[in-house]
Protein backbone atom coordinates (compact mmCIF):
# COMPACT_ATOMS: atom_id res chain seq x y z
CA UNK A 1 0.00 0.00 0.00
CA UNK A 2 1.25 3.50 -0.82
CA UNK A 3 1.27 5.63 2.29
CA UNK A 4 2.55 8.77 0.53
CA UNK A 5 2.17 9.61 -3.16
CA UNK A 6 3.25 12.97 -4.57
CA UNK A 7 2.50 13.93 -8.13
CA UNK A 8 3.77 17.04 -9.88
CA UNK A 9 3.99 18.78 -6.52
CA UNK A 10 4.97 22.43 -6.52
CA UNK A 11 5.30 24.77 -3.59
CA UNK A 12 6.08 28.47 -3.70
CA UNK A 13 6.11 30.74 -0.67
CA UNK A 14 3.90 33.82 -1.04
CA UNK A 15 5.78 36.78 -2.48
CA UNK A 16 8.57 34.59 -3.94
CA UNK A 17 9.30 34.52 -7.67
CA UNK A 18 10.31 30.86 -7.80
CA UNK A 19 9.25 27.49 -6.38
CA UNK A 20 11.10 26.05 -3.39
CA UNK A 21 9.79 22.56 -4.24
CA UNK A 22 9.02 20.93 -7.57
CA UNK A 23 8.75 17.18 -7.12
CA UNK A 24 7.44 15.28 -10.15
CA UNK A 25 6.95 12.05 -8.21
CA UNK A 26 7.56 10.44 -4.84
CA UNK A 27 6.11 7.24 -3.39
CA UNK A 28 6.58 5.87 0.13
CA UNK A 29 5.04 2.51 0.99
CA UNK A 30 3.64 1.03 4.20
CA UNK A 31 6.16 0.41 6.96
CA UNK A 32 9.07 2.14 5.18
CA UNK A 33 11.60 4.06 7.28
CA UNK A 34 12.69 7.01 5.19
CA UNK A 35 15.41 9.52 5.95
CA UNK A 36 15.16 12.82 4.09
CA UNK A 37 18.49 14.58 3.59
CA UNK A 38 19.29 17.99 2.19
CA UNK A 39 21.21 21.19 2.77
CA UNK A 40 19.97 23.79 5.19
CA UNK A 41 17.24 25.84 3.53
CA UNK A 42 16.63 23.25 0.80
CA UNK A 43 12.97 22.73 1.77
CA UNK A 44 12.90 19.65 4.04
CA UNK A 45 10.71 21.23 6.72
CA UNK A 46 8.51 22.74 4.01
CA UNK A 47 7.98 19.25 2.55
CA UNK A 48 7.15 17.78 5.98
CA UNK A 49 4.65 20.59 6.55
CA UNK A 50 3.02 19.79 3.21
CA UNK A 51 2.82 16.11 4.14
CA UNK A 52 1.36 16.99 7.54
CA UNK A 53 -1.28 19.16 5.86
CA UNK A 54 -0.06 22.31 7.61
CA UNK A 55 0.75 23.83 4.21
CA UNK A 56 -1.17 23.28 0.95
CA UNK A 57 0.57 22.66 -2.38
CA UNK A 58 0.68 25.50 -4.89
CA UNK A 59 0.12 22.85 -7.58
CA UNK A 60 -0.03 19.08 -7.86
CA UNK A 61 -1.34 16.40 -5.57
CA UNK A 62 -0.50 14.80 -2.25
CA UNK A 63 -2.12 11.46 -1.51
CA UNK A 64 -1.83 10.01 1.98
CA UNK A 65 -3.15 6.51 2.68
CA UNK A 66 -4.48 6.67 -0.90
CA UNK A 67 -6.66 9.72 -0.18
CA UNK A 68 -6.08 12.92 -2.11
CA UNK A 69 -5.81 15.63 0.51
CA UNK A 70 -4.37 18.41 -1.66
CA UNK A 71 -7.64 20.31 -1.82
CA UNK A 72 -9.21 19.18 1.43
CA UNK A 73 -10.37 21.85 3.91
CA UNK A 74 -8.08 22.68 6.84
CA UNK A 75 -10.60 21.02 9.12
CA UNK A 76 -10.46 17.81 7.12
CA UNK A 77 -6.65 17.94 7.16
CA UNK A 78 -6.60 18.51 10.93
CA UNK A 79 -8.92 15.53 11.34
CA UNK A 80 -6.73 13.36 9.11
CA UNK A 81 -3.58 14.41 11.00
CA UNK A 82 -5.17 13.64 14.38
CA UNK A 83 -6.37 10.21 13.22
CA UNK A 84 -3.40 9.01 11.20
CA UNK A 85 -0.23 10.97 12.00
CA UNK A 86 2.26 11.29 14.81
CA UNK A 87 4.26 14.45 14.34
CA UNK A 88 7.47 15.41 16.17
CA UNK A 89 8.71 18.86 15.28
CA UNK A 90 11.84 20.72 16.37
CA UNK A 91 9.77 22.68 18.85
CA UNK A 92 7.95 19.80 20.46
CA UNK A 93 4.70 21.75 20.94
CA UNK A 94 4.14 20.15 24.33
CA UNK A 95 1.54 21.86 26.48
CA UNK A 96 3.34 23.45 29.46
CA UNK A 97 0.35 23.34 31.83
CA UNK A 98 -0.20 19.60 31.36
CA UNK A 99 1.66 16.72 32.99
CA UNK A 100 3.90 14.35 31.06
CA UNK A 101 1.22 11.64 30.85
CA UNK A 102 -1.49 14.14 29.86
CA UNK A 103 0.71 15.46 27.06
CA UNK A 104 1.19 11.92 25.76
CA UNK A 105 -2.53 11.07 25.83
CA UNK A 106 -3.51 14.35 24.12
CA UNK A 107 -3.92 12.92 20.57
CA UNK A 108 -6.47 10.45 21.94
CA UNK A 109 -8.67 13.37 23.02
CA UNK A 110 -8.66 14.70 19.46
CA UNK A 111 -9.15 11.36 17.74
CA UNK A 112 -11.63 8.65 18.65
CA UNK A 113 -9.70 6.33 16.35
CA UNK A 114 -6.40 6.83 18.19
CA UNK A 115 -8.22 6.49 21.52
CA UNK A 116 -9.79 3.21 20.48
CA UNK A 117 -6.46 1.87 19.26
CA UNK A 118 -4.69 2.91 22.45
CA UNK A 119 -7.25 1.13 24.64
CA UNK A 120 -6.56 2.28 28.21
CA UNK A 121 -4.91 5.58 27.26
CA UNK A 122 -3.19 6.18 30.62
CA UNK A 123 -1.71 2.68 30.60
CA UNK A 124 -0.70 3.03 26.98
CA UNK A 125 1.06 6.36 27.70
CA UNK A 126 2.90 4.84 30.66
CA UNK A 127 3.96 1.84 28.60
CA UNK A 128 5.39 4.08 25.86
CA UNK A 129 7.18 6.28 28.40
CA UNK A 130 8.64 3.16 30.03
CA UNK A 131 9.86 1.91 26.65
CA UNK A 132 11.49 5.28 26.13
CA UNK A 133 13.07 4.98 29.59
CA UNK A 134 11.58 8.13 31.00
CA UNK A 135 12.00 7.94 34.75
CA UNK A 136 8.79 6.80 36.49
CA UNK A 137 8.98 9.69 38.96
CA UNK A 138 8.53 12.19 36.11
CA UNK A 139 5.16 10.95 34.83
CA UNK A 140 3.15 13.48 36.82
CA UNK A 141 5.62 16.36 36.38
CA UNK A 142 4.81 19.35 34.24
CA UNK A 143 6.75 19.13 30.98
CA UNK A 144 8.43 22.47 31.79
CA UNK A 145 10.24 20.68 34.63
CA UNK A 146 11.92 18.27 32.19
CA UNK A 147 15.23 18.50 30.38
CA UNK A 148 15.11 18.98 26.60
CA UNK A 149 16.10 15.33 26.04
CA UNK A 150 13.31 14.18 28.34
CA UNK A 151 10.85 16.45 26.51
CA UNK A 152 11.90 14.87 23.22
CA UNK A 153 10.95 11.46 24.59
CA UNK A 154 7.54 12.78 25.69
CA UNK A 155 7.04 14.16 22.17
CA UNK A 156 7.90 10.73 20.72
CA UNK A 157 5.50 8.91 23.04
CA UNK A 158 2.78 11.38 22.04
CA UNK A 159 3.52 10.78 18.36
CA UNK A 160 3.31 7.00 18.78
CA UNK A 161 0.21 6.66 20.98
CA UNK A 162 -2.81 5.10 19.28
CA UNK A 163 -0.72 3.59 16.47
CA UNK A 164 -0.83 6.27 13.75
CA UNK A 165 0.13 4.96 10.29
CA UNK A 166 2.54 7.84 9.59
CA UNK A 167 5.25 9.26 11.87
CA UNK A 168 6.80 12.53 10.74
CA UNK A 169 9.89 13.70 12.61
CA UNK A 170 11.86 16.91 12.02
CA UNK A 171 15.23 16.93 13.83
CA UNK A 172 13.85 15.15 16.90
CA UNK A 173 17.27 14.18 18.28
CA UNK A 174 19.11 17.50 18.10
CA UNK A 175 19.22 17.86 21.89
CA UNK A 176 20.26 14.29 22.72
CA UNK A 177 23.74 12.96 23.54
CA UNK A 178 24.94 10.11 21.31
CA UNK A 179 23.92 7.21 23.54
CA UNK A 180 20.46 8.66 24.24
CA UNK A 181 20.15 9.39 20.52
CA UNK A 182 20.95 5.77 19.60
CA UNK A 183 18.47 4.44 22.17
CA UNK A 184 15.87 6.90 20.89
CA UNK A 185 16.26 5.62 17.31
CA UNK A 186 16.10 1.98 18.44
CA UNK A 187 12.89 2.69 20.31
CA UNK A 188 11.35 4.71 17.52
CA UNK A 189 12.10 1.88 15.08
CA UNK A 190 10.90 -0.93 17.33
CA UNK A 191 7.70 0.89 18.22
CA UNK A 192 7.06 1.82 14.59
CA UNK A 193 7.69 -1.77 13.52
CA UNK A 194 5.39 -3.15 16.22
CA UNK A 195 2.59 -0.94 14.94
CA UNK A 196 3.56 -1.04 11.23
CA UNK A 197 4.00 2.72 11.04
CA UNK A 198 5.81 4.48 8.22
CA UNK A 199 8.53 6.91 9.37
CA UNK A 200 9.63 10.04 7.51
CA UNK A 201 12.60 11.53 9.33
CA UNK A 202 14.65 14.69 8.78
CA UNK A 203 17.98 15.27 10.47
CA UNK A 204 21.44 16.69 9.80
CA UNK A 205 23.03 13.82 11.72
CA UNK A 206 24.84 11.42 9.31
CA UNK A 207 24.96 8.67 11.98
CA UNK A 208 21.17 8.55 12.00
CA UNK A 209 20.99 8.38 8.19
CA UNK A 210 23.08 5.17 8.33
CA UNK A 211 20.35 3.49 10.33
CA UNK A 212 17.67 4.07 7.70
CA UNK A 213 17.03 1.54 4.93
CA UNK A 214 15.96 4.33 2.56
CA UNK A 215 17.64 7.73 2.28
CA UNK A 216 16.11 10.33 -0.01
CA UNK A 217 18.40 13.11 -1.17
CA UNK A 218 16.03 16.07 -1.59
CA UNK A 219 18.21 17.49 -4.39
CA UNK A 220 17.65 14.28 -6.39
CA UNK A 221 13.86 14.47 -6.35
CA UNK A 222 13.42 18.24 -6.28
CA UNK A 223 13.71 19.91 -9.68
CA UNK A 224 13.35 23.38 -8.20
CA UNK A 225 16.87 23.30 -6.75
N1 LIG B 1 7.13 30.95 6.57
C1 LIG B 1 7.98 31.14 5.53
N2 LIG B 1 7.77 32.14 4.66
C2 LIG B 1 8.59 32.33 3.61
N3 LIG B 1 9.66 31.55 3.33
C3 LIG B 1 9.91 30.54 4.16
C4 LIG B 1 9.08 30.27 5.31
N4 LIG B 1 9.57 29.18 5.95
C5 LIG B 1 10.66 28.79 5.24
N5 LIG B 1 10.85 29.61 4.16
C6 LIG B 1 11.92 29.47 3.16
O1 LIG B 1 11.83 28.19 2.53
C7 LIG B 1 13.13 27.68 2.30
C8 LIG B 1 13.19 26.25 2.84
O2 LIG B 1 13.06 26.28 4.26
P1 LIG B 1 12.96 24.93 5.09
O3 LIG B 1 12.78 25.32 6.52
O4 LIG B 1 11.94 24.06 4.47
O5 LIG B 1 14.41 24.31 4.85
P2 LIG B 1 15.13 23.07 5.56
O6 LIG B 1 15.71 22.24 4.45
O7 LIG B 1 14.20 22.40 6.50
O8 LIG B 1 16.28 23.81 6.35
P3 LIG B 1 17.05 23.42 7.71
O9 LIG B 1 17.83 22.17 7.40
O10 LIG B 1 17.94 24.60 7.94
O11 LIG B 1 16.02 23.24 8.79
C9 LIG B 1 14.11 28.64 2.93
O12 LIG B 1 14.69 29.42 1.89
C10 LIG B 1 13.27 29.50 3.82
O13 LIG B 1 13.77 30.80 3.88
TrEMBL record:
Domain ABC transporter residues, every copy: 4-224
Protein's UniProt keywords contain Transport: yes
Glycoprotein as UniProt keyword: no
SMART domains: AAA
Gene Ontology molecular functions: ATP binding; ATP hydrolysis activity; transmembrane transporter activity
One CC-aspect GO term: plasma membrane
Lineage: superkingdom: Bacteria
This protein's UniProt keywords: ATP-binding, Nucleotide-binding, Transport
InterPro entries associated with the record: AAA+_ATPase (IPR003593), ABC_transporter-like_ATP-bd (IPR003439), ABC_transporter-like_CS (IPR017871), ABC_transpr_LolD-like (IPR015854), MacB-like_ATP-bd (IPR017911), P-loop_NTPase (IPR027417), Sigma_54_int_dom_ATP-bd_1 (IPR025662)
Signal peptide: none
Protein name: Methionine ABC transporter ATP-binding protein
Organism of provenance: Leucothrix arctica
